[in-house]
Design brief:
The complex is a heterodimer of chains A (533) and B (620).
Chain A lengths: L1 E4 H9 L6 E2 H8 L3 H13 L3 E13 L1 H6 L4 H11 L3 E3 L3 H5 L5 H9 L3 E4 L2 E4 L1 H7 L4 H12 L1 E3 H6 L4 H8 L6 E13 L1 H8 L2 E7 L4 H6 L5 E3 L18 H15 L3 E2 L5 E3 H4 L20 E3 L19 H5 L14 H12 L14 H5 L1 E3 L4 H10 L5 E10 L11 E10 L5 H14 L4 E9 L2 E10 L5 E10 L1 H4 L8 E7 L1 H8 L5 H4 L3 H6 L5
Parallel strand pairs in A: 1-9, 9-10, 11-15
Antiparallel strand pairs in A: 2-8, 3-7, 3-8, 4-6, 5-6, 12-14, 15-16, 16-20, 17-18, 18-19, 19-20
Helix pairs in contact in A: 5-7, 9-11
Chain B lengths: L2 E5 H8 L5 H10 L3 E13 L5 E4 L17 E13 L10 H11 L12 E9 L9 E8 L5 H17 L8 E6 L7 E6 L12 E2 L14 E2 L5 H7 L1 H6 L9 E6 L4 E4 L3 E2 L11 E8 L2 H17 L3 E8 L5 E4 L5 E6 H8 L6 H7 L3 E5 L2 E6 L9 H12 L19 H15 L3 E2 L5 E2 L1 H4 L13 E2 L9 E2 L4 H9 L8 E12 L7 E12 L5 H15 L3 E5 L8 E11 L13 E9 L1 H7 L5 E7 L5
Parallel strand pairs in B: 5-8, 5-15, 20-24
Antiparallel strand pairs in B: 1-4, 2-3, 2-4, 6-14, 6-15, 7-14, 8-11, 9-10, 11-12, 12-13, 15-16, 17-19, 18-19, 21-23, 24-25, 25-29, 26-27, 27-28, 28-29
Helix pairs in contact in B: 1-3, 8-10, 9-10, 11-14
The chains are: A alpha+beta (533), B alpha+beta (620).
Chain lengths: 533, 620
C-alpha cells in the first residue's frame, strides 16, 4: 500500500489503464479544481506515473452576427413565408413578402441548401424544403449549441451529439457567424508504472504545509505528506545587519596596515594649532591656517602645549564635575617648554635643522589656538614626538575638517588616513615600495608616483593606483618629512609619510555621485550595498 | 590652488624646440606641475583700462572686463593654453618664461645656471625715517626694452597677482608695484605719510556712488580726481579690500619721485598717472614689505622672468635712513654645498651623474670629493634646506626610474583599544540585524539640543568661524544623527534598525586640548509595535556580549527628554559585575527609552521609536 498526497491519490483513482481522460473530466471526478489537478498531475508526471498529453483543437464560438442568427437563419424565415404564400412566389414579390428590400441572402441560402428551386423568376419549395420545415439543419443546431455553451471544440460538439463536420460544411461561406481559435486540451493517462502502482494499492495521505512541534512530538509526521515547494519561487527580500560601506573601506585599510606591521594611534580631533600646523613646519601666516580654510574653536579657545603643566587641580572630584568645568578661554602663560622652543626656532631661523627657516617671529599664542584638525598627520606627528626611535610604523584613520561649503563633492568633514615609517632605511624608494604594497593590498593592479609639492614633505609624490574598472585614481599625497619637521621632535632618521581621503574611494566603489549620501544615508542603499564587490 | 593659463604657442617658442602636446604635458608633470588640461581661450581687450580678459567658456562670459568692470571690450583672438594648477612653492614657474626656463633644463636644451646680465640704472630710492614699524623694506629695478603688447601686459599683471598670492601672502609680506618709468622723474623717495598728508589720483580714479565699492576697480563710474590716503582706504575698492593691512597705523607708506609725484601707496594702490599702457616702453618695479627676504625673492622672480621675455633689467640703489646702501635686485646665485651620498641615501638609489641632473634643474653644480658645490638661481625662493635640492635630484632622475622596495625592518602591528571595542560593538549590532550609519560630527544647537527637548547648554564645543548656520558646534551625542536618518527614510520599509559608533565631544579642562573625545554607541529601532522593551533588549544583548553588568534607573518625568517619562532609564555600570573592565566605581554609562511623540513630531517621524546611547570610551 502506497500513501500519496490526497490530490495525487484522487487523480490516480480517477484514471483507468489505457484510457486518456480530459483534465476537465478528472476535475469533475476528483471534485477539486483545475489548478490542484494540474499541480498534482505535474508531480505525478515527474515521477513517471502519469502522462500529460496535449492536443490542439479548433475551438468555435459565436460572433455578434452568429448570436443574432441563433434567433433564426434568414432562409428559415423565408421558408416559412414561402410555405404560407402557397409554396411558391415570384422573385419580384419576395421583398414585399419578407418585408425587406435586399433579399439576396435568402435566395442564395434557400437555393444552396436545396430548399427551393428557381425557375423563370419563380422560387418554389422543394421536397427537401418541405422536410426542412419540421427539422432543423446541422448548422442551426451548431449555432444553438454554441449559444448554450459559449464555446466548444469539434470533439466536444460531437460528444454533445452535434456532428460538427456537416454543420461546418453547411456554414461554409458564412464565416461572419463563427470565431475560431486554437485550444490546447490536456488529457491524463496512466503510464505502465502508474498502472502498476495503482494495482499494488494506493491510499490518500494528509498533506501538511508546516511541520509543527505537535507533529514531531506525536510522531504523526510519519503519516503526513509535506506539500512540495517550487524551489525557485520568489520570496520577499531579507537583509543582514551590515557595517556602513565607508566603514568597510576603513576596516579594509586598517587591515592592510596591520598586515604590514603598523601600530594604530589616535589623537585629538580638536587639537592645538601647534600639532596640526606648527610641528609640521607650516608657517603661521600660511594660507592653509587662515580662518578662511580652517575651523577654529571658540570654546574652548586655547589648549596646552606639550610640556606645559596642567593648571587644573588634580582630579579627586567626581568625573561629571571635572567634565563640566568652564573651558579655557585665555592662553596659558608660563615658560615655553623645550620641544616648543625647538619648533619655534626652526620656524624662525631653522634652528639646528640645517634649514634657513621661514624668517619671521613665531608666536606661541597662535600655536595654542584650538582648531578642528585638518588632517590626521597631527596624529602621526604626536606619535613621532612621543617616540622618535626607529624602526616604527604608525597609522591613524580619523575624522578631519576643512572649512568648505557642503555640496555634491565637498563636505566640511571627512575621514582621512595617515601613515608614517620611522626607519634608518627610509628613502624615496622604500616610500614607493611601501605604498605599492599597501595599495596592492587594497586591490590595485598597478601603482604610480609623480612629483608633487606638499608643505611638510620633501621630496613629495602624488600616488595613483589602477583600480580595476575604475581606472587610475589619485590615492594620496606622500613624501619624506622635512628635517624641519623631524629634528625638533628629536628624530634623527628620515620619516616617510602619506595621507589621503577615504570617502572618494568608497564613493567610487559603491557608485555614489553625491558625497552627502554617505553621511545621511538612504536605508535602502545601506540594505542593498553588497558586502562583496 | 589658483589655475593659470599658459599660452601653448608662447611656451613652445620660449622652449625653442618643437614638442608634441603630450610630450609637453608629460615633461611638465615630471617636473611636478599639476596639469589640469589644455583649453582654447578667447582674449578680450578692454578699451578703458587695456586689461586683457581671457575667457574659457564664451557662452558664460558676461562681456565685462575682469579688471575694471568696463563693457568696452574688443575680441583679439583665440589661442590654445595649457591650464596648470599653481605650485605655491615654485613661484618661478608661474609664467611661460619661468616654465620654459625649467623645461629647457629638464629636456637638456640648455642646462646649468641661467646667467642674467644686469647693469646699474643709476637711479636710487631713499628710504625716509618713520617706516621702521610700518613697512620698512623696499627693493626696486628698472626694466627696459619690453614690447608691451597684450600678451606681455597680461603676463606682467598675472605675475604680479600670482606672486602676491604665493610669496606676498596677499600683499602682507610683499607687495609689488609696476609703473611706466617715462611718466616719472628719478630719483625716488619711500616715506611714511599722514593719512591726509598727500593726495593723488589712484589707479582708475575714485568711484562715484556707493555701488562702486568693494568689487573690481571702477565697476561703476569713476572720476579722475585726487584723493587722500584716508579717503582711498574708505572708498576705493582696493583701499577697502586691503585696508586691514594699514588700518591700525597712523602713517602710511608712500613712494614718490623727485618732483613729489606719487607712484603708489604700498601695499594698496598705484597712481593713475604712472599707469602702464600699451605705449609703455620702460618699467619701474618696486616690492615693499616687512620681510626683506620675501621681497628680495619676489623681485628676483620678476626680474628673471622679464629678462627671459627679452627685457634689459637694471639695478636701483636703495639707501636706508641709517646710511646702509643696497643694490637691488640681487640676482647673484646663492651658494650651497651638498653631500652627494646624503642625497643618494634619501632617494634610495645611486645617482652617479648627479651634477648633470642638477644642471638640468638649472643649478650651477661642480663635484668635489663627494660634495657638490651648488649655485642656486636667485629666483628659486623655495630652497631652504638640502632636502629641497635632493628633491630636485630625484625629479631629474625620474620617479619612474626609482625601483620600489620595502624597508627591511620588522615591526609589530597593534590596534587601538577603542577601535577593538568598537569592532565588538559593531559585531553585536550587525548580528542583531542593525545597519550601521555614519553621520556628521558638526551640527547646531537647534538640531542637536532643542529638537530633542533639551536646552542648548551654556558651554559646549563651539566653532569660532562656522561656514554655515547648520554647522556651528561639535556633537555631544549620536541621538540626533539617528533620528535625522530615520526622518529621511520614512518611506522605506519598516521596521528600521540602525546604529552608529562615532566620536562625540565634551568640554573637559583636564584634557590638554580642553576637549574630551568620547566614542559613543547608539542604536534605534523604529516601526509599529516598537517600545521600551526593544531598546532594553538591544542594550542587554550588548552588555552581555561586552561582559558588563548594568543597573537601570528610571528618570524623573521632568528630566526625561527626549524620552517618554516612565518609559526610559539612565543606565549605570556596576563594577562588581564587570570584572573584565577596570571600573573604579559605579558610573552613568548611557540612556535608553521610548522617544517622546513630541520629539518624533519635531523630526517628522511617524513610527514609534526606541533607542539607547552609551559611552564606549568610558570602559577603557
Amino acid at each position: 500500500m502506497v500513501r500519496l498526497p490526497e490530490i495525487e491519490y484522487r487523480i490516480l483513482a480517477a484514471l483507468e489503464a489505457g484510457k486518456a481522460l480530459a483534465v476537465a473530466e478528472v476535475v469533475k471526478q476528483t471534485g477539486t479544481d483545475q489548478s490542484l489537478v494540474m499541480a498534482g498531475a505535474t508531480l505525478l508526471a515527474q515521477r513517471g506515473l502519469v502522462i500529460i498529453s496535449e492536443e490542439s483543437q479548433e475551438e468555435f464560438s459565436l460572433t455578434d452576427d452568429g448570436r443574432a442568427a441563433a434567433a433564426g437563419f434568414p432562409e428559415r424565415k423565408a421558408l416559412a413565408v414561402l410555405k404560407a404564400a402557397g409554396g411558391a412566389a415570384n422573385l419580384s414579390e419576395l421583398p414585399r413578402l419578407l418585408g425587406k428590400d435586399d433579399v439576396r441572402a435568402e435566395i442564395k441560402w434557400l437555393t444552396r441548401k436545396g430548399w427551393c428551386t428557381r425557375d423563370a423568376g419563380v422560387l418554389a419549395l422543394s421536397d427537401k424544403g418541405e422536410a426542412a420545415l419540421s427539422e432543423k439543419g446541422a448548422d442551426e443546431l451548431l449555432v444553438e449549441k454554441l449559444v448554450e455553451r459559449g464555446q466548444a471544440t469539434e470533439t466536444e460538439l460531437a460528444e454533445a451529439g452535434t456532428d460538427a463536420r456537416v454543420a461546418l460544411e453547411l456554414l461554409k461561406g458564412r464565416n461572419e457567424l463563427l470565431k475560431r481559435k486554437k485550444r490546447v486540451s490536456r488529457k491524463l493517462s496512466l503510464t505502465d508504472a502508474g498502472v502498476a502502482l495503482k494495482a499494488g494499492g494506493i491510499e490518500p495521505a494528509i498533506e501538511v504545509n508546516q511541520l509543527t512541534p505537535e507533529l514531531l512530538s506525536t510522531g504523526r509526521w510519519r503519516e503526513v505528506v509535506f506539500r512540495k515547494y517550487d524551489p525557485g519561487l520568489a520570496t520577499s527580500p531579507k537583509y543582514p545587519g551590515k557595517e556602513h560601506p565607508l566603514q568597510r573601506v576603513i576596516q579594509e585599510i586598517r587591515r592592510a596596515f596591520f598586515e604590514m606591521g603598523f601600530e594604530e594611534v589616535a589623537s585629538p580631533t580638536v587639537d592645538t594649532a601647534f600639532w596640526v600646523f606648527d610641528a609640521l613646519f607650516q608657517p603661521q601666516d600660511h594660507p592653509a591656517r587662515e580662518m578662511q580654510d580652517t575651523f577654529y574653536v571658540a570654546e574652548p579657545k586655547y589648549g596646552r602645549l606639550p610640556g606645559e603643566a596642567d593648571s587644573s587641580e588634580s582630579g579627586d572630584s567626581p568625573p561629571e564635575a571635572r567634565v563640566k568645568r568652564s573651558p579655557v578661554q585665555s592662553p596659558f602663560s608660563g615658560p615655553v617648554p623645550d620641544l616648543v622652543r625647538h619648533v619655534a626656532r626652526t620656524h624662525e631661523d631653522g634652528g639646528d635643522t640645517g634649514s634657513t627657516g621661514w624668517r619671521y617671529k613665531w608666536d606661541v599664542e597662535k600655536a595654542r589656538q584650538l582648531v578642528l584638525r585638518t588632517h590626521t598627520t597631527s596624529a602621526s606627528i604626536r606619535a613621532l614626538a612621543a617616540n622618535p626611535k626607529p624602526p616604527r610604523k604608525v597609522f591613524c584613520i580619523g575624522k578631519t575638517f576643512r572649512r568648505e561649503a557642503t555640496d555634491q563633492t565637498h563636505l566640511a568633514e571627512f575621514m582621512q588616513i595617515d601613515g608614517i615609517i620611522i626607519d634608518e632605511q627610509a628613502t624615496l624608494a622604500t616610500l614607493f615600495g611601501t605604498l605599492e604594497a599597501f595599495y596592492k593590498k587594497m586591490g590595485a593592479e598597478d601603482v604610480r608616483f609623480r612629483p608633487s609639492f606638499f608643505p611638510y614633505t620633501e621630496p613629495s609624490a602624488e600616488v595613483f593606483a589602477k583600480m580595476g574598472k575604475l581606472g587610475w585614481i589619485e590615492m594620496c599625497g606622500s613624501g619624506v618629512f622635512r628635517p624641519e619637521v623631524t629634528r625638533p621632535l628629536g628624530c634623527k632618521v628620515p620619516v616617510l609619510a602619506w595621507g589621503g581621503g577615504v570617502e572618494r574611494i568608497a564613493m567610487l566603489r559603491f557608485g555614489l555621485d553625491d558625497i552627502r549620501r554617505l553621511y545621511m544615508a538612504d536605508i535602502d542603499w545601506l540594505r542593498q550595498a553588497r558586502l562583496s564587490e | 590652488m589658483p589655475v593659470v593659463s599658459i599660452a601653448t604657442a608662447t611656451l613652445k617658442r620660449l622652449i625653442g624646440k618643437s614638442l608634441g602636446k603630450d610630450e609637453l604635458v608629460a615633461a611638465l608633470e615630471q617636473l611636478g606641475n599639476d596639469v589640469e588640461g589644455t583649453a582654447s581661450v578667447t582674449a578680450f581687450r578692454c578699451n578703458k583700462c587695456g586689461h586683457v580678459t581671457e575667457v574659457l567658456e564664451r557662452a558664460d562670459f558676461n562681456n565685462t572686463c575682469e579688471w575694471c568692470g568696463s563693457k568696452a571690450l574688443v575680441e583679439t583672438g583665440t589661442s590654445e593654453v595649457i591650464r596648470i594648477s599653481l605650485l605655491p612653492v615654485r613661484p618661478d614657474m608661474f609664467d611661460a618664461a619661468g616654465l620654459a626656463r625649467a623645461l629647457r633644463g629638464y629636456l637638456g636644451i640648455e642646462t646649468g645656471l641661467p646667467v642674467y646680465r644686469i647693469e646699474p640704472s643709476g637711479f636710487k630710492v631713499t628710504v625716509q625715517p618713520g617706516l621702521e614699524s610700518i613697512r620698512p623694506y623696499i627693493v626696486a629695478c628698472v626694466v627696459r626694452g619690453l614690447v608691451m603688447d597684450d600678451e606681455t601686459v597680461k603676463t606682467v599683471m598675472k605675475m604680479q597677482e600670482n606672486l602676491h598670492w604665493a610669496l606676498g601672502r596677499n600683499r602682507r609680506r610683499a607687495s609689488i608695484g609696476v609703473y611706466d618709468l617715462d611718466t616719472v622723474e628719478p630719483d625716488f623717495e619711500y616715506s611714511a605719510i599722514a593719512p591726509d598728508g598727500v593726495s593723488f589720483v589712484p589707479l582708475f580714479g575714485m568711484p562715484i556712488g556707493e555701488g562702486a565699492r568693494g568689487q573690481g576697480l571702477g565697476t561703476g563710474d569713476s572720476e579722475m580726481r585726487a584723493a587722500t590716503p584716508r579717503e582711498i582706504l574708505e572708498n576705493h575698492p582696493k583701499g577697502v579690500g586691503y585696508k586691514h593691512l594699514l588700518e591700525k597705523l597712523d602713517r602710511y607708506p608712500l613712494l614718490s619721485d623727485s618732483n613729489g609725484k606719487v607712484l603708489s601707496m604700498p601695499p594698496i594702490i598705484n597712481s593713475e598717472d604712472t599707469r602702464v599702457t600699451q605705449k609703455t616702453r620702460n618699467l619701474f618695479v618696486d616690492v615693499t614689505g616687512p620681510d626683506k627676504n620675501a621681497i628680495e625673492k619676489t623681485i628676483a622672480v620678476i626680474a628673471c622672468g622679464l629678462a627671459d621675455l627679452g627685457a634689459r633689467v637694471e639695478t636701483v640703489q636703495v639707501v636706508y635712513p641709517d646710511g646702509t646702501k643696497e643694490v637691488t635686485p640681487n640676482l647673484k646665485p646663492r651658494l650651497r654645498t651638498i653631500d652627494q651620498q646624503a642625497a643618494e641615501r634619501l632617494i634610495g638609489v645611486e645617482v652617479p651623474d648627479m651634477t648633470k641632473l642638477l644642471e638640468r634643474m638649472r643649478y650651477g653644480a661642480k663635484s668635489e670629493a663627494g660634495a657638490i658645490m651648488l649655485q642656486i638661481p636667485s629666483y628659486r625662493a623655495d630652497i631652504m634646506h638640502d632636502y629641497d635640492v635632493f628633491e630636485d635630484v630625484a625629479i631629474a632622475y625620474g620617479y619612474h626610474r626609482i625601483t620600489p622596495r620595502l624597508v627591511p625592518s620588522m615591526t609589530v602591528g597593534s590596534h587601538q583599544p577603542i577601535e577593538e571595542l568598537s569592532t565588538i560593538a559593531r559585531r553585536v549590532m550587525t548580528g542583531l540585524g542593525f545597519l550601521e550609519i555614519m553621520t556628521p560630527a558638526l551640527t547646531n544647537g537647534a538640531e542637536h539640543y532643542e529638537k530633542l527637548g533639551l536646552p542648548v547648554p551654556a558651554h559646549h564645543v563651539r566653532l569660532a568661524n562656522p561656514i554655515s548656520v547648520e554647522q556651528t558646534l561639535a556633537r555631544e551625542q549620536l541621538v540626533t544623527g539617528l533620528l535625522s536618518t530615520l526622518r529621511v527614510n520614512t518611506t522605506r520599509e519598516m521596521p528600521q534598525q540602525i546604529f552608529e559608533a562615532g566620536d562625540c565631544f565634551e568640554l573637559s579642562e583636564e584634557m590638554e586640548t580642553g576637549v574630551h573625545t568620547r566614542r559613543k554607541l547608539a542604536a534605534a529601532i523604529a516601526g509599529p509595535r516598537v517600545g521600551y522593551t526593544d531598546a532594553k533588549q538591544m542594550l542587554d544583548a550588548l552588555s552581555r556580549e561586552l561582559g558588563l553588568g548594568l543597573r537601570f534607573v528610571g528618570m524623573d518625568k521632568d528630566k526625561s527628554a527626549p524620552f517618554i517619562g516612565g518609559r526610559c532609564a539612565v543606565v549605570f555600570t556596576s563594577p562588581a559585575q564587570s570584572a573584565i573592565y577596570n571600573l573604579q566605581s559605579e558610573m552613568p554609562w548611557g540612556v535608553l527609552g521610548e522617544v517622546h511623540p513630541e520629539v518624533l513630531g519635531r523630526f517628522g517621524i511617524l513610527q514609534p521609536t526606541a533607542l539607547y546611547e552609551v559611552d564606549l570610551s568610558a570602559l577603557l
